[in-house]
Amino acid sequence: MQDAAHDTPVRIHEGDARALLAGSGPERREERADPDGRYRHVRLFLQSPSFLHAQRQMLSRQGRSNAHTLFGIETIPSDNHVRKMLDGVPAGHFDPVFHHVVDGLKRRGALEKLRRLNGHLLVALDGTEYVSSTRIECPNCSTQKQSDGTIRHYHAMVGASIVAPGSAELLPLPPEFITPQDGAGKQDCERAAVKRWLARVGPWAARLKPIYLGDDLHCCQPVCEAIGNAGGHFILTCKPGNHTTLYEYIHGVALDEARRTRRLGGKRKHHFHTRWMNDLPLRDGPGAMKVGWFEITVTSETGKQVYYSTFATDITITKDNIAELAECARTRWTVENSVFRELKKFFHLEHNFGHGESTVSSVLAMFNLVALLMQSACQMVCPRWKAARKRWVARYQMLDQLKILVNHVVFGNWDQFLVSITTDQLPEQPP
Q: How confident is the model at residue 233 (pLDDT cuts 50, 70, 90)?
């Protein structure tokens, strides 16, 4: 990445992703031309479904288009050509795009404000579906038999995002797709996908000093060991029904506890009551991993319980860190309530952009994640982007403005484009 004062989305986009979006498998590298991958990623970055059509019209009217001047696309391809070229590209091919952007933010110190618990970054893991159909399928679909006997075909993935209490930053990391595995006797599942994610992405993520957040599904010894092997720590939801041995140890025992009162979001006071105990077995039998357990109960001023949950962690719990541990534990919902919601509402993650015969559906979902990551990176380090973002209350309002501009006005470069969205000053157009 360039110096912060000179960052523009095109520098982040092209410098970090252009070469990686250009090619794919060695068997069809020449066919998978640079414009194909760039076009699809550009379209998702700008959230403009009419980008291709509008650029063709612009080219016919003015002899040039933003596809060329902003993104270096020499020949505007068709949607079908794009889908054909992307089908078969492994989703893991784009991991370095995420790595490069996040590493760039790390080098600048942009991630420091997100660190908690003595310099760690929180990485929330959760699963979600993104395409579903009873008519269209491919070899990478999972299946579910519905009550009426029909078979539902769907795609799902485990998403990972850097999160922080009180932060609005949305920084997706590479996902792991839940797909049929070679040689597996049963359908793929979220827990298996999490373990694959830790084996594939975990070694790179270790440089972030991660603490992984997840639900009770992940609170088992195989996943917890995989987290440790990948150089991370964990805070995972720990429900009584799935951890009978652990709860037998704490039943009837006097636990350490702490109480505090604070205002949430500047509203009414809430009372936080936490209890905890260390050195508990995660499961029954020899070789059981020892973990710490804590409980969070939040009540309103009237005494009504508004939140309750329990967690297991490999971090030693003390009276000095329990409040921050509790705050971090509750942040795990960000990946579902903010990241997935943003992707589905504004990036149309659940829309079938193209199912294909192999991996195109996964690749297009990956592009949506890359688009959100790059927009977030721009928000964190690009002064002009931040200035433009402040002009609109919601992200979708800014994206609507970007779509209007890029589909109707030719810009010679990204500097002209950013000046326009911050000042309403448009460049002179050719006659």
A: very high
